[in-house]
Amino acid sequence: MKVLTVVQARMGSTRLPKKTLMEINGKPILEIIIEFLKLSKLTSKIIVATTDLQEDDKIEELCTKLNIECFRGNANDVLQRYYDCAKYNHADLIIRITADNPLIDPTLVDKIIQTCKETNCDYASNMINETYPSGYLVEAFSFDVLEKLHRQSHDLQSREHVTFKIRQNPKSFHIENILAPNHLRRPSWRLTVDHKEDFELISQIFSKLYVMNSYIKYEKVVDLLDNEKKLLDINKKWH
User: Helix, strand, or coil here: 112?
Assistant: First the structure.
């Protein structure tokens, strides 16, 4: 089974422009995400999927520097971009990661991949019943399901959000939902990067927990924020 982990990235974010290349500890967010994903044991290939807009040339430049393939596709139709990317790479299973989640945990990615392999499901994720913080969301779906979505989905929401139809029609698909262990469930926490306050919080977490050539374990993040709850006040206005 060829497992293609696709990092969806672009420079044109409306809420926090160019956030993909904002630096934490001297490294662009996208580089950190790739660094962490390389520690996944079950991923066959990591690829960055960006748009064909000129502003996203900088994303391709970073990928070239990191020796990571960059696929460029439709700027407005994200589902088309995913389908074209997966088909070009002959993917059997596609893992969807967004480039605003620098704390992504490769062991969680592997847990979701393993679930797909064991159950042969259409879709596996930890976002149907959310027990992890935002910022840890991972989706996995088979190429057959992606092809079906691409062929049958014509509404704007589905074209923009890729798996929208699955989440709106869960009974039409074989879905596996991955839950955090009871003692690590923190669904109200906001650990993604959409606003400058989010970036400030994530930067604080990295300054306290990041070690070169390793990833930040989810359990360590929970321990830190449980013990230093004031950090969560940094971006509380966006909860």
Answer: helix
Element containing residue 170 per DSSP (H, E): none
Tokens 């679930």 correspond to 115
Measured between alpha carbons, how far is 109 from 152 in angstroms, rounded to an integer?
28
pTM of the full predicted structure? 0.96
Q: What is the DSSP string of 127-161?
A: TTTT-SPBT---EEEEHHHHHHHHHH--SHHHHHH
Tell me the C-alpha to C-alpha distance, in Å, between residue 90 and each of 5, 119, 142, 143: 12, 21, 11, 9
Find tokens 């004031």 and name the residue: 230
CB crowding 25-47: b at 16 or more within 10 Å, else e: eebbbbbbbbbbbeebebbbebb
Q: Which amino acid is at 75?
A: A
SS3 48: strand
- How many angstroms separate the Cα of 47 from the Cα of each of 14, 38, 42, 232? 23, 11, 14, 32
Q: Which stretches in the chain have pLDDT values below 70?
A: none
Q: Residue 98 and residue 120: Cα distance in Å, rounded?
A: 24
Q: Which amino acid appears at position 56 of this protein?
A: D
Q: Are 71 and 94 in contact (CB under 8 A)?
A: no
C-beta of residue 97 within 8 angstroms of C-beta of residue 74: no
